[in-house]
Amino acid sequence: MSGRSKSFCGASARPYDGVMPAVTPLPVDEADLAEIRFDDAGLVPAIIQEDGTGDVLMMGWMNAESLRRTLETGRVWFWSRSRQELWCKGETSGDRQYVRRGWYDCDGDVVLFAVEQEGRGACHTGNHTCFYREFGHATDQS
Length: 142
Prior knowledge:
Blueprint: H1 30-34, E1 44-50, E2 56-62, H2 64-73, E3 77-80, E4 85-88, E5 97-104, E6 111-117
Parallel strand pairs: 1-6
Antiparallel strand pairs: 1-2, 3-4, 5-6
């Protein structure tokens, strides 16, 4: 380990002054998990959508362990390709995602989670969604 302290997903990285969303783990069905087709790197794309609005918030990568943790904890977990480690969305930023529902596609090679987004939003830029840039509309890209 690099000397950084690791905390468990669910522990507050900063004080939250509102009502915490309920954590809602989803049932882990081994037959469902067996349907997921991970790529050669052991990853599957995970699309994160805002429950209620249907807005696509972000896309990240999950391995088998992060997918299982997402289902079991009701918080979104990813695999960081650059850091080569598991990470729980919002653990350091406070921009947490609470799972409400989850699906996998017809081929089993993409997963989709509807979440309740807490904090500023899903994007590391501070935007609510990572998909704030539209083709053909060159505007402020911050």
